[in-house]
Amino acid sequence: MQTFNVNGAALAGEEHGAGELLILVHGAVGDFRSWENVVGALAARYRVITYSRRWHHPNIVPLGGEAYTAEGHTADLLALVAACGGGPVRLLGHSYGAAICAGLAAQRPDLVRSLVLGEPALFALVLNHPHGAAALEQTANLTQPVIPLLRQGQRERALRAFLRSVLGAADQARLSERVLQVMLDNVPTLEPMLGGMRAGRLFTAQEAALVRAPTLLVEGGQTGVLFQTVNEVLAAVLPHAHRAVVPNVGHALHLEDPAAFSQIALEFFAQH
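Above: the chain's sequence. Below: its structure in token form.
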């Protein structure tokens, strides 16, 4: 493990391989270890950076009321790109991490060569979509017990409630004990993350149109309506969108079938 110093924070992570720079950005209740089953395949062709986003294990939790927002994490990713030699770089992200990658690509299109976005959590894009809005409301309702459970010290129940809201029971059952332990280590991030998602600025279709990099939108063949709809809407507004499906998995994608996910990403990066 090593440390990347960005924007006044020391973020834990690792570097593997050599060649063009590829940065991996994990999702909710994850950290740099979330990529441990895909980094080997990717590092055979690229210089791969994995890191734990601010707030996430084993980083020091920020003090002084600092907000957990996509804007803050995007600023950290921008600083990390600069610290690692600047762009253009390739980015691969999952869920919340994929949303951060999309935000950077819209903000600084000159820094991004190509993108792989695994079911990005860009929920504002479906607010006016009938099926997407209904699925978003259902997900939000399912997350309501998470913060009270955390405040009662019931971390495992809080994690199960959160996973039920975004994965569903079948997807959750396919996760390994190792994956679940990594998630449990990051359960304290759920309260600031959920609060930040409600208070943060929304990513719009107009911003998506600013992304110039070829972008692969990946979804699980068994994922839910919410993430299916986000990818559908995003594919319509991104200038250079491509789509791929990892069969027999849900939202967890690389955590359920790392080999298939890695192969899809490598094939796309080889072409773009």
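The mean pLDDT is 94.
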